[in-house]
## 1
Amino acid sequence: MRKNKTIISAIGCVLITLFSVAQNAPGKDFILSGQAHYGFIISHRNNMANLIKGYVSGAELNYIFRTNGNKAWQQIHNYPEIGVGALYLELANHSQLGHLAAIYPYTNIRLNKSGKKFNLNLRLGTGLAYVTKPFDINTNPKNIVIGSYLNGFVNLRLSSTWMITKSFRLDAGIGLSHASNGSFSSPNLGLNMATLNLGLGYAFGNKEYIYKKDKIPPVISKWEPSIISVIGMKELEMPNGPKYLAYGLQLNLYKKLNYKNSLGGGIEMTYNNATKQVWTDQSIHTDKVSDIAQVGTKVSYAFTMHRLSLPIDFGVYVYKKQAYNGLFFHRIGLRYMVTKNIIANITLRTHWATADYFEWGIGYKL
């Protein structure tokens, strides 16, 4: 049952991203790119250093669509590429970490002016990863970084492309990848990997890509309120323990600075059954909602690409009776505008570098 729920959570991250980009992809013009990876696991906790036995290596296959400006958002974002990557990494510790295989949709946001030969890109991707050797109390008790086979996956990469000919291009970059399950299964320190990549791509279909250029009207800068209701589930530190439900209600207010960036803030309320269990473990028993409920305020930023946005929140609790998880909370993730007003939400709630739980929700923008 636990594995099935993890699968559903991970697949959801892929589907919401894939759906948001697939609707804009052309059908015949695409690029296939094969790349080799070499790098290392980042030891972000002292107690995980013994798991790192050497350098990671692997390969990646990318299926890439180029945008040409047929839609306004493509011109606003300087004709980004949209792709799906399949990544395989050998983690240099077969007995305790095994291998990692990931599939993830992504976008290459062009950082320089569109050129025919060379382009510098910021690559943002999120999907799911399968780790072959997760924690097991009997067979693999020393793996304290990953507690489940299936995990969420995030890739951030500075990449470059150089068209050698009209058909072939060289792909190179340096990036960070992260895999974890958002505390759905403990332990969950997470895998952070830094890798260099180098490979070759081939363009199918149209070789002479013509970029459309229209005059884009200025953005209407206004405050946009929204309300989002979320639910999540997590384990406490004890592996194979019970799952605890958490609920939240978020009141958000964003102001568009331009078509890409928005700033704002908000107020949110949460009720986390894990907090109640922590109090019980400390011999403090309560059934009062006011003892478990938490209220926080936050400042927010969102990067928007068409219907998809990437929110980042930095918050502080203004009402909290329990010291568990500290004073500050944070959030990263994805939001997708299903309609003009309906919001689909998949975000990760954290306390500094410690993941709390994935938030699944739906909202309404006024």
## 2
Amino acid sequence: MRLLALHHPADLNSELARVGVDQCAWTIFSQKAEVIPLKITGISVAAGNILKQTALVCGADCALHRDAISGRVKKTDAILFATPRQYEQICLRLKQQPDCAARLIPEIRTLLAAARQPQRRVKLGRKTLTLNRTLIMGILNITPDSFYDGGRYLNPHAALERAHQLVEDGADILDIGAESTRPGAAPVTPEEQLKRILPVLKPLVKKTRVPISIDTTSSRVAETVLAEGAVLINDISGLKFDPALARVCARYNAGLVLMHIRGTPRTMQRNPVYKDLMAEITGELQKSIHQALEAGVAFENLLVDPGIGFGKKPEHNLEILRRLAELRTLNRPIVIGPSRKSFIGHILNLPPEERLEGTITSCIVGALNGASIVRVHDVLPVRRALQVLAAIQSGGS
């Protein structure tokens, strides 16, 4: 007798084949091998108790408030623990229950689909970016004061050389920023951002097929760079700083990364506090998505970023990486940017120049937990690490 680790479908199928299980039944067993926790908030105790009993009948379980059974509370949160096959049975049984429980079925099915089939495509103008592996967004900071490489690429010639090197190293996207967003950084005017960006962007769009992203919160900057050939806007504010940016992206059918932040770069690290970190990040990103959709941005053009290091303490950043898969609730590709950030320095007691290993580890954990794109300074070593991870996950194919 021994334990099995069957996290990959190929490994489960291999073991089923060794046992001699009929191949027609493999899908059934795959649906029984994975427990997916699902949290439902603020339901009536009646709905909670129905959900609990229904889950138990199906061989699953449901955690409720301790006083839900006695009726001492009027509302309760619930955490369902079930396999995909058990969720199917739960939904079938809930159809026969009162509306307070039956109305949960559509959202359960939507979240289950998001958990099992993450978004694999995103539209960037006329381009469709396929996300069948974790892609790499190479960072090009055209700034004098970025925390790691400030000043290195302020000269357009140096910036262009760096851009071509990032592409050669394997960057799938180039992300150009002309405004430092390090903790304590002051805003940079749209005029100054464009003065830095355009001498690099204009020749670059003619010489590379790699999609170009611009890291800005300014609608004016976005309007100009999208007209010049950029196809993605990376907004660290999630539309909080300049709501008009969404309308600009809609006009150009551009991609839009919506990032979570608390405060501004100048204020964000002044003791950020969360009661429920992942719930608050997810809820605030959902509001940003709604805002973008209201402005005309297509759903398939949106990506989300939990904002590692933006209004987060070190422990918050670690929790984000551990629980990143929860952002699949939003049903959009997930971007993370852990590159050489201070939470790595906090763990290792090292300056930005010596945080490469921590960056690689964070990217691997992010990829394992659902990141579609990792935004990094060090493209080549991260690409190699992700290649090894992909080989392990695919069995070498």
